[in-house]
Automatic annotation (TrEMBL):
<keyword id="KW-0521">NADP</keyword>
<protein>
    <recommendedName>
        <fullName>Rhamnolipids biosynthesis 3-oxoacyl-[acyl-carrier-protein] reductase</fullName>
    </recommendedName>
</protein>
<dbReference type="Pfam" id="PF13561">
    <property type="entry name" value="adh_short_C2"/>
</dbReference>
<dbReference type="GO" id="GO:0016491">
    <property type="term" value="F:oxidoreductase activity"/>
</dbReference>
<dbReference type="InterPro" id="IPR020904">
    <property type="entry name" value="Sc_DH/Rdtase_CS"/>
</dbReference>
<dbReference type="InterPro" id="IPR052178">
    <property type="entry name" value="Sec_Metab_Biosynth_SDR"/>
</dbReference>
<dbReference type="InterPro" id="IPR036291">
    <property type="entry name" value="NAD(P)-bd_dom_sf"/>
</dbReference>
<comment type="similarity">
    <text>Belongs to the short-chain dehydrogenases/reductases (SDR) family.</text>
</comment>
<keyword id="KW-0560">Oxidoreductase</keyword>
<dbReference type="InterPro" id="IPR002347">
    <property type="entry name" value="SDR_fam"/>
</dbReference>
Length: 289
């Protein structure tokens, strides 16, 4: 009978009263995740991206959601996650509003598509800096706030937005995303290392690996590959990712339901990476993303 008893099942997926920080939260997957955190009961969600106007607009949209808990709100904190100075600014601004952070979604990222022979060094460096170094820096700088009220029973959570491109071969040819694929493989393994390092500090670290979700970052690749409908036909689930898919995995990993998940890299692509035999898509015409 003991195995059948799950204490307080009604709150298993609740984020009541939690405080979250979302980098790259002004649009796309980050905005969907921020919306999910607030609607699941979070009290404060800090939205960060490089552009102040985008942060303000995102917060305006989030704060107008009809089903938020009383007093719950999104807070704009513009910052450049590609630089240590920008991340230190983010941490300092968040610390002015709160003494603790329960959830960090390291979502800010960039990509670049160009052929191997002409792939620019500065583009490769920019992608690696933001997608890997920036993730490490933001976790390190926010670690004191993440540790502040974390416990064995209720650990704080770090979620890294990786990609299935870090698990299989990404886009090759004239639109090769070499730096992006390498950066996502690197950040997944970084997450595993930090899961072991920070677990004893009562912080879990997990990576979410989305496939194709229609967004500003993926629109160039989707167009070159024939559009959303053509790509959807190749997916075992016959569709691409939707905001609710991101919402579900973010709430799961951030809630009590996901408190014993640590060091995972969860694919969120409908099984497409397996259907294509370990390759994301066929080579496409050169496109800057």
């Amino acid at each position: 009978m003991g195995d059948a008893h799950i204490p307080d099942f009604a709150s298993l997926f609740s984020l009541k009263g939690k405080v979250a920080v979302v980098t790259g939260g002004s649009r796309g997957l980050g905005l969907s995740a921020a919306s999910a955190l607030l609607q699941a009961g979070a009290a404060k969600v800090f939205i960060s991206s490089r552009k102040a106007a985008a942060c303000e607009e995102a917060c305006k949209t989030l704060n107008a959601l009809p089903n938020l808990a009383p007093g719950a709100h999104a807070i704009s904190v513009p910052a450049d996650s590609s630089s240590l100075a920008g991340i230190k600014h983010l941490a300092a601004e968040v610390a002015m509003h709160t003494q603790h952070v329960d959830i960090l979604l390291a979502n800010a990222g960039a990509t670049w598509g160009e052929g191997f022979d002409t792939h620019p060094d500065d583009a490769f460096a920019k992608v690696m800096d933001l997608n890997v170094r920036g993730v490490f820096n933001v976790i390190r700088e926010l670690a004191p706030l993440l540790e502040a009220r974390a416990s064995v029973a209720d650990p704080s959570r770090v979620l890294i937005t990786a990609s299935v491109a870090g698990l299989v071969v990404g886009t090759l040819g004239s639109n090769g995303t070499y730096g992006y694929s390498a950066s996502k493989a690197a950040v997944i393994h970084l997450g595993r290392n930090l899961a072991v390092e920070l677990g004893p500090r009562h912080i879990t670290v997990n990576s979410i690996c989305p496939g194709f979700f229609p967004s500003k970052m993926t629109q160039g690749l989707l167009k070159q590959a024939g559009g959303v409908e053509e790509i959807a036909k190749e997916n075992p689930m016959l569709r691409l990712g939707e905001p609710s898919d991101i919402a579900g995995i973010v709430v799961y990993l951030s809630s009590r339901a996901g408190s014993h998940v640590n060091g995972a890299a969860i694919e969120l692509d409908g099984g497409a990476m397996w259907a294509k035999g370990g390759k994301l898509m066929t080579p496409a015409k050169k496109t800057k993303l």
